Amino acid sequence: DAGVIQSPRHEVTEMGQEVTLRCKPISGHNSLFWYRQTMMRGLELLIYFNNNVPIDDSGMPEDRFSAKMPNASFSTLKIQPSEPRDSAVYFCASSFGNTIYFGEGSWLTVV
Amino acid sequence: GENVEQHPSTLSVQEGDSAVIKCTYSDSASNYFPWYKQELGKRPQLIIDIRSNVGEKKDQRIAVTLNKTAKHFSLHITETQPEDSAVYFCAASSRGGTSYGKLTFGQGTILTVHP
Predict the structure, then answer these.
(1) Do the chains contact at B43 and A100, CB–CB below 8 Å?
(2) What CA–CA distance (Å, rounded) separates A89 from A104?
(3) What is the pLDDT of residue A99?
(4) Partner of A63 at 20 to 30 A CA spacing, among A76, A94, B19, B50?
């Protein structure tokens, strides 16, 4: 299996622009997680899905952030409008059972 | 919700020495405790995990211990090598009910192994 696939790997955007991050989980995995990593706050869980249904979005920082999972093989995390403080690495991860596997991450810089 | 505290935040050892990283958790319902290693610019990768029905688990130079009563668990790396240098994260989750394996991570430990 190719593992969890994320795109884009790197993105630099201007403040106010919309950002869409994409994730393809490992085939057969039924849980999908979006994490954000920064030096200040470490690894934060933003939202997670089980069987394509959002279970807990309490980590989503504000209404500018939204996530969808239209089917078992695809999820998006959208930031609109983006702000410089959104600059971070965004990891998508998936699991079937306890073990969670991370994607390579999307490195976002908002200038 | 679950809260995981990890110590120390940085750890520097000489090659060949042992390294120990400790974590505590708050939710007594947590029953799964993985450890992840993250090299610079890379994704976190699982290196070892332990479930609450086991007190200790070993995999070559790595071992993890769990004390359910005290709600703490530790990572032990023996005979450290420079390639062990990375950030290590502990995590805790409870499976069952509506938790679906949600992991809460500790703050991370930067381990540096000097040749």
Answers:
(1) no
(2) 9
(3) 85
(4) A94
Query: Amino acid identity of A11?
Result: E
Are A52 and A69 in contact, with CB atoms under 8 Å apart? yes
Residues of B in contact with A103 (CB under 8 A): 43
CB A93 within 8 A of CB A4: yes
Closest in A42, A102, A105 to B108, CB measured? A42
Each residue of A3-61: pLDDT tens digit? 999 999 999 999 999 999 999 999 999 999 999 999 888 899 999 999 999 988 988 98
Strand partners, A94: A32, A101
pLDDT band at residue A2 using 50, 70 and 90 as cut-offs: confident
Residues of chain A neighbouring B108 (CB-CB closer than 8 A): 42-43
Do A43 and B42 make contact, defined as CB atoms within 8 angstroms?
no
Least Cα distance to B79 among B20, B18, B11 occurs for: B18
pLDDT per residue as tens digits for the range B50-101: 988 888 999 999 999 999 999 999 999 999 999 999 999 999 987 654 456 6
